[in-house]
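User: Run a structure prediction on this.
Assistant: Running it now.
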Amino acid sequence: MFLDRLALWLGRTAAWCFALIVLVMVYEVVARYAFNAPTIWAHETAVLLASLGFVFGGAFCMAEGTHMRITLLVEKRPGLARLSDGLSLVVGAVYLAGLAYAAWRMTERAIWRFSLDGSWDPERSGSTLNSPLPSYLKAILFLGAALFLAIVLVRLVAWLRGLAKAAG
């Protein structure tokens, strides 16, 4: 399915962000302590890279089927496994729908800001670099939550169809 392939590709690509964080931090430490020339961009870059990895990690795990499960009850009673799967999909869909909605509202307020002269003025970090990173991170959170929600909804529909087949 397209959404699974997209989530898997995004997850694998975003995983490389953690390797880049290591490189950025090594550069920062060497620049700061060996050359007494700290950067103003290393921290915000590391935050952006980590955010990409974490935001798309949830959808990746769902697409790959590697989310953690508490199997104590379902291993002893196989009938509970199907119910547990359905319940987790419903709860996940409700949570992710709320998260996606809240992230959209935050993104809207952070990105669609304009100065009195009409120029675009997205939310900024307030640091020395003062990048528009917070507004982009909110947009990334929305995209990650929406992708995760779409995958959960597809799985929920398949679960419901399986129930209908079993009952019919």
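Helices lie at 2-34, 42-64, 72-76, 78-111, 133-167.
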